[in-house]
TrEMBL record, chain A:
SUPFAM superfamilies: Six-hairpin glycosidases. Transmembrane segments: none annotated. Residues 10-190 form the Putative glycogen debranching enzyme N-terminal domain. Coiled coil: none annotated. This is Amylo-alpha-1,6-glucosidase. Residues 348-592 form the Mannosylglycerate hydrolase MGH1-like glycoside hydrolase domain. It comes from Micromonospora chalcea. Pfam families: GDE_N_bis, MGH1-like_GH.
UniProtKB/TrEMBL annotation, chain B:
This is Sterol-binding protein. It comes from Micromonospora chalcea. It comes from the Bacteria. Residues 18-105 form the SCP2 domain. It holds the Pfam family SCP2.
Length: 686, 123
């Protein structure tokens, strides 16, 4: 994994990860390089002057799409006397552009040999992630008079990197160079362009005409400014909160991704560096989080997921009719079906959540036209829940992968292999059913009933959905309740035995509304009780469980996105102080990450570490972590669409001071929300 | 003997309507290249209504493959999106049309779908 000193810039699914000097020297299993379409297009990019590597004085990641590096020749011990400055400025946006500036501060002229070593291994992101090294195709490098062409060919599959510069250079197969003479105080500049191609047999690029916005720096800047200006303004006495909000908005802009099939519209990609692609679950949950701030993302996400909804049985892709996709990839392993992501459908929550998002989106925006447009897809999704997901025939959503080679074992959000266990730590057989997914199914049916009644004019169907939902709720509360400990089991095994561990998933149950009123307070107590609550957030798995590990990926770490839905759930059932506690803890943690919450951080007790410990290989920025502060703000302010208006019912911790969110878009036009922190959370803890 | 492509297009033409394409309108031309010989199929879609002609006409999207691959695509043995990423199938024009029409192709013949374990076990 990249260490602390990596610099990342990105635009959609093109991104560059480099050392702090701007150099890229990727080893086969390290995700540094220039990436696009899940393929590494540059694995080597090393600048030397007179054969010497450069030393970094400072760097700036000015915007998500650009960075600047200030360098001097020589090693740290003698650079103080440097008579030369080198500045590298780079930006991504479709292609990758680097501007080199060299300044001679000496009183005499200097002769310089400036060289960039360039190379590419064209690794598929999956090969890097899983450390698979043998490429089946052929790498080539062709030096032309005005460019260097690096390529990879396997059958008709061709990917090419073309490097050129505005200053005539000498190109060879390993890079390019300039011989310069700089007079005293003279400055020299060169602009280097690195273009990435995915070439079909006709010589055309797969991506032609698919840009969401201009690729030029100015266009990117303009686009970002417009994005920020469209979003509501947040004013707060709490400086960290304002900074976190701004960081989230910018990162969300960076993570916008334009899939090949959408003709330039964007939806949130999941996260850097591994997940710069479309995920059903991540994209939907992120859209739900950011609805009050960026509602238009939901529309495109719903449309693209609908357009790619499953239509047939495909066991390799775990596809069924009506199922919403899990993950789409564009690299070599997807192309040659060494991985199933073309697309892969192995998730059981994306399908009910698709329906949930459509309803929530309409409640905010009043866009009934989209509800009508997506009626067939919604019905197909609901049919999938009943017909194809109920593997046991007892009314629940189950999963068991049919692709036993490269498919996912756990098809819920906690998708690591050991995330679902019994209290004794052993893993259950398949099929498995996790609790939160049943909640989503309940919510999907309740919400679809409203859509059927209001927009599809089908009252019979609405009544049927409500009956089914009520029956699901009744049986769920019977089968999943761990009576002696007062919480819901994480999962059931095929014999109906409970995976009776205490997990954060019970917070999602509150969000979905499937929890019986009289049991809600017990669930809420657990969520902010000593076993799940660390002081920063709710742990994925409670301390004291056999598999608990404060840095276990889904067995003890704290996921900001998870917490944002937990907080929303607590508010839904009226546990306002508890919701504020969760919001406060996560937003406090965000300040330690400069407002950019990682995918996950350690579940250590807050008093023990004093600061949140980042999970070692966490992705950052990650869409649903970026969305978490926005949903927490919504939750604290109690923003809720209500009969065509926006209801505001703030419950803020005292330390938050005064918050105002201006120009919240929705069916009401734009309205403002004001709040002042009044809750004493310390009192609550006692 | 009638080849797979002909059977596929004639079947579409006979059906005349495909519910999966009810939101789709546009014209696709499939160019099946075999050496110097190219067979053209023109598929017109008007909100799910289909019309097929075996001719080389103007289209919003032109798809190019070898006849053998195309037969495997419409037989479910091969997947169109993977073939596109691999470069074995080319698309000029509106890619969205291909992704919509691709959904009409069947799944792999040996795919069995979800394995239900009704009866016996259960909560």
């Amino acid at each position: 994994m990249p260490g602390q000193n990596t610099v990342r810039i990105l635009d959609g699914n093109t991104f560059v990860v480099s050392e702090d000097s701007g150099d890229i020297e990727a080893t086969p299993n390290e995700p540094t390089g220039l990436f696009s379409l899940d393929t590494r297009y540059l694995s080597k990019w090393v600048l030397t002057v007179n054969g010497e590597r450069l030393n970094v004085l400072s760097y700036d990641d000015l915007q998500y799409y650009e960075a600047r590096f200030f360098l001097v020749p020589g090693m740290a011990t003698h650079y103080i006397d440097a008579k030369l400055s080198v500045i590298r400025e780079r930006a991504v946006g479709g292609s990758f552009r680097e501007t080199l500036t060299i300044l001679n501060h000496d009183e005499k002229a200097v002769d310089l040999e400036v060289r960039m070593d360039a190379g590419s291994d064209f690794a598929d992101l999956f090969q890097i992630k899983d450390e698979i090294l043998n490429k089946k195709g052929e790498l080539y490098a062709e030096a032309e008079s005005d460019r260097l062409r690096l390529g990879y060919r396997r059958g008709n599959f061709r990917r090419e990197t073309v490097v050129s510069a505005n200053q005539p250079a000498r190109y060879d197969q390993r890079g390019f160079a300039w011989s310069l003479r700089l007079e005293p105080n003279e400055q020299w500049d060169a602009v280097i362009d690195v273009q990435t191609f995915a070439i079909g047999p006709g010589g055309r690029d797969l991506r032609i005409g698919l840009r969401a916005h201009g690729v030029e720096r100015l266009a990117l800047q303009h686009d970002l400014e417009e994005w920020i200006s469209r979003a509501p303004k947040l004013n707060s006495e709490h400086e960290d909160l304002a900074a976190t909000y701004r960081r989230s908005l910018v990162d969300l802009a960076a993570l916008r991704f334009s899939p090949l099939s959408l003709g330039g519209q964007t939806l949130p990609a999941a996260g850097l560096p591994w997940f710069m692609t479309m995920f059903g679950r991540d994209s939907i949950l992120t859209c739900l989080q950011v609805l009050p701030f960026a509602p238009e993302m939901s529309k495109t996400t719903l449309r693209i997921l609908a357009a790619l909804q499953g239509t047939r049985f495909d066991d390799f892709r775990d596809e069924d009719p009506g199922r919403i996709l899990h993950e789409m990839r564009y690299g070599e392993t997807a192309a040659f079906e060494e991985q199933p992501h073309s697309p892969y459908y192995g998730s059981v929550d994306a399908t009910p959540l698709f329906v949930v998002l459509l309803d929530e989106y309409e409640r905010w925006t009043g866009d009934g036209a989209l509800v009508k447009e997506l009626e067939l897809e919604c019905r197909a999704a609901l049919r999938w829940i009943d017909k194809y997901a109920d593997l046991i025939g007892n009314g629940y959503i189950w999963y068991e992968r049919r692709n036993t080679d490269t498919g996912l074992e756990n098809q819920c959000w906690k998708d690591s292999w050991d995330s679902i266990s019994y209290a004794d730590g052993t893993l259950p057989p398949f099929p498995r059913a996790t609790c939160e997914v049943q909640g989503y199914a309940y919510d999907a049916k309740m919400r679809a009933a409203r859509l059927a009644r209001v927009f599809w004019g089908d009252h019979t169907y609405a009544d049927q959905l409500e009956r089914e939902a009520a029956e699901l709720k009744r049986r769920f509360n019977q089968d999943w309740w761990v009576a002696d400990r007062g919480f819901y089991a994480l999962a059931l095994d095929p014999d109906g035995r409970q995976c009776d561990v205490l997990s954060s998933n019970i917070g999602h149950l509150l969000w979905s509304g499937i929890v019986d009123e009289e049991r809600a307070s017990s669930v809420a107590e657990h969520l902010v009780g000593p076993r799940l609550w660390s002081g920063w957030g709710v742990r994925t798995l409670a301390e004291g469980e056999v598999r608990y590990n404060p840095i276990g990926y889904h067995n003890g770490t704290i996921w900001p996105f998870d917490n944002s839905f937990v907080a929303w759930g607590l508010r839904r059932y009226g546990f306002n102080e508890e919701a504020a506690t969760v919001a406060n803890g996560i937003l406090d943690a965000a300040a330690y990450f400069d407002g950019r919450l990682p995918e996950a951080f350690g579940g250590y007790q807050r008093e023990l570490t004093k600061f949140p410990v980042e999970y070692p290989t966490a992705c950052s920025p990650q869409a649903w972590s970026t969305g978490a502060p926005l949903l927490l703000i919504r939750t604290m302010l109690g923003l809720e669409p209500h009969e065509g208006h926006l209801a505001v019912d703030p419950r803020l911790p005292m330390g938050m001071g005064r918050i105002e969110v201006l120009d919240i878009p929705g069916r009401w036009g734009r309205v403002d929300a004001f709040a002042r922190g009044r809750l004493d959370l310390d009192e609550l803890a006692e | 003997m009638v080849d797979m492509a002909t059977r596929f297009f004639e079947d579409l033409d006979r059906r005349g309507f495909e519910p999966l394409l009810v939101k789709t309108s546009g014209t696709l031309r499939f160019d099946l290249h075999e050496g110097p010989h190219t067979t053209h199929w023109l598929l017109e879609i008007e909100r799910g209504n289909l019309r097929v002609r075996q001719e080389d006409g103007e289209a919003d999207t032109v798809v190019g493959t070898e006849p053998r691959l195309f037969a495997e695509l419409v037989g479910g043995e091969e997947n169109a999106i993977a073939a596109l990423l691999r470069g074995d199938m080319t698309v000029v024009g509106d890619l969205r049309l291909v992704l919509q029409v691709e959904r009409v192709f069947p799944g792999p013949p040996d795919s069995r779908g979800p394995r239900h374990t009704f009866g016996g076990r259960g909560a």
